[in-house]
Amino acid sequence: MHVLILGGTTEARRLAELLAAGQPAGPRVTTSLAGRVSAPRTPPGEVRVGGFGGAEGLAAWLREHAVGLLVDATHPFAGTITRNAAHAAATAGVPLLVLRRPGWRPVEGDVWHEAGSLAEAAALLPALGRRVFLTTGRTGLAVFAPLADPWFLVRSVDAPEGPRPPRTEVLLDRGPFTLDGERELLRRHRIDVLVTKDSGGAATAPKLTAAREARLPVVVVRRPPVPEGVRVVAEPGQAARWVAEARARRSPRRP
């Protein structure tokens, strides 16, 4: 059986590792990376880089390469890819599973302001602070570009492109981040408001703890919804079991 993993996340890489551990009796595994990060951490197995050309292109690739199972383990905010995966899987008749790490939840002491989009987050900022720690990635900065008064510290893995706020400092860094490091960053740059996507996971969660300790407001951009009817699991181990169960169902029974 050929398993295609739409990857780019820690969970996708871990799933590929779990499936590779079952070789040579395990399935053929291909991980697809979007190619937006300059030096991605490649998983075991086959790797392809680049887009598919939308849902129809992905469906054609599934058929051409005899893919038996599709796992969408992309970033929680890769909404377009997830919608395309659902459409392509239905078109090609390939079972689909979404592997999505759980989102963050506020705890006592948090001062969260939820936003449905980056544009909503930008609209909230003038009333919340003047020194912004923006951790929403290198894309989408254009919606913050009209904000001339706040100062922005933008952290991303690769350098951002396109329009950005006039008062911006870029910090190139890759998680996981430590709590002590996040505390020092907030202190050194005199941050008074944090903006983040609800990415979930432990690698970038320390910034939320540091903001809570400093009693800073946090603008949290909500995730796009998963298409209706698509099964979702939270752990790579659950996805690996789903693959194993699907393979067992398709294996011919011995008399």
What does this protein structure show overall?
With 255 residues, the chain is of the alpha/beta class. Helices cover 30% and strands 23% of the residues. The chain is built from seven helices and twelve strands. The chain has helices at residues 10-20, 54-64, 79-92, 118-124, 179-188, 206-213, 236-250, and strands at residues 2-6, 28-33, 46-49, 67-72, 96-99, 111-115, 131-135, 151-156, 168-172, 193-197, 217-221, 231-233. The strands form two sheets. It has a six-stranded parallel β-sheet with strand order 3-2-1-4-5-12, with helices on both faces. Helix 1 packs across helix 7, helix 2 packs across helix 3 (79-92) and helix 5 packs across helix 6 (206-213). The longest helix has 15 residues, at 236-250.
Query: With helices defined by DSSP (H or I, 4 residues minimum), what is the helix count?
Result: 7
Distance separating the two termini:
22 Å
Question: What structural class is derived from the secondary structure elements?
Answer: alpha/beta
Shape, per Cα inertia axes: elongated
pLDDT averaged over residues = 93
**Strand order, largest beta sheet:** 3-2-1-4-5-12
User: How much beta, percentage-wise?
Assistant: 15-25%
- The proportion of residues forming helix, as a percent range, comes to 25-40%
Low-pLDDT segments: none
Largest sheet: 6 strands, parallel
Q: Please compute the radius of gyration using only Cα atoms.
A: 20 Å
